[in-house]
Amino acid sequence: MALINLKDLLNHASKNKYAVGAFNVTSINFIDPIMEAAIESNSPVIMQLAEVHFRYLNLEHIAPAIIRAAKEVSIPVCINLDHGKNFDTIIRAIRAGFTSVMFDCSEEPLDINIAKTKEIVKIAHSVGVGVEGEIGNIGGEAVGIAAPTPHEASAESFTKVGDAVRFYEETGVDALAISVGNVHGTYKGEPNLDFERIEKINNAIPIPIVLHGGSGISDNDFKKAISLGISKINFYTEMSASAVKAARIFLNENPDCISYGDLAKIVQADVKKTVMGRMEVFGSKNITASDKTLCISCDESSCGLTEPQFKPDAKTVVYDSLVDLITKEVLQSMRK
Length: 336
Ligand SMILES: [Zn+2]
What we know:
The protein contains 11 helices and 8 strands. By secondary structure, it is an alpha/beta fold. An 8-stranded parallel beta barrel has the order 1-2-3-4-5-6-7-8, surrounded by 10 helices. α2 (31-41) packs parallel to α10. The longest helix is centred in the last third of the chain and has 22 residues, at 260-281. Zinc ion is lined by residues 83, 138, 141, 184, 212, 234.
C-alpha cells in the first residue's frame, strides 16, 4: 500500500520544501530500524541498495523483505537502486519490485551518459518506476572495512547548469543527482557546498535535485541546501560508522557476549537514532501527519497523506511478465 514512485514522492518534497532521506541498506538488520524511524517520525523514507554494496547482500533476497515491510506501513516508502552502473542491474532491480532506480553513468562523457540514461528511462517508465540520473562527478562510494581516505570535491567536476538542462530535456529523468562540493565517504576538511549552483540548477530544471554524500555535512548546510531546492539526500557513511561505534562500545562493555542477536539489537537501535535525527534535520518529520497533506487518492487517507500529488502509486506494481517482455525487446534492439 505504501510503496511510492520516486517522482510522486520527490515532487511532494520539492513543493513542500523538505528532503527525503535515502538510507542505504547494507544488512538485513537495517530494514526494521529505518522503517521504525520513519513510522515514529511520521516521515516518508527512501530505502536503497547500492550496486557497490551487492557484496554485502543479495538483491533478490533482500528486496522482498523491504517490499513486505513497506507494504505493511502507512507512510510512503520508495525503494531505490543506488548508483546502478550496469544495464543488467537496473533490470534486476525493476524485476525485484524497486519503485525507483538510479542509473549512474556520470563517469562517461555527457553525450554517452544522456544516450544510455534515456534508454533506462524508457524501460523504467514503462513499468511506472522512477529514474534518478547523475551528472558531474561525486567520486567513489563508501565501501570496505576501513574509513575511505578523506577527499575533497574538485570544482572541475561540479555540475554545469547548462548540462543539467540538456540532460533533463533529453533523458526525461525524474530526479537529478548533482555535484556541488559534495563527496561520497569522508570529507577532507569542512564540506564547502556551492549553494549558488544548487539554486541555479533548481531554477533551471523542473525536476527535484538530489544531494549525495550527506555524511559530514552540517545541519545548517543541509537546511540551506533544502531551502534552495534539494529534495533527496543520500546518507550512509555516518550511519554505518555510528552503528559500528555502538557495537564496539557494547562489545567492550560485554566481553563475554556470544549473542549476535543482542549485538544486532544494539546496531539497530543506533541506526534508528541516526535516521530519526536526519529526518528532523531534513524537515520530513511529521510530514505525513500534517494537515496540509491528506490523501484524496486512497480510501480513508490510509496512507497518512492528504495531497493528490502523493498517490501511493498503483503503477509501481511490477508484473514479471511485462518486465520480461520489455527486457526481451530491449535486448533485441541492442543486438541489432
Ligand atoms: Zn551516491
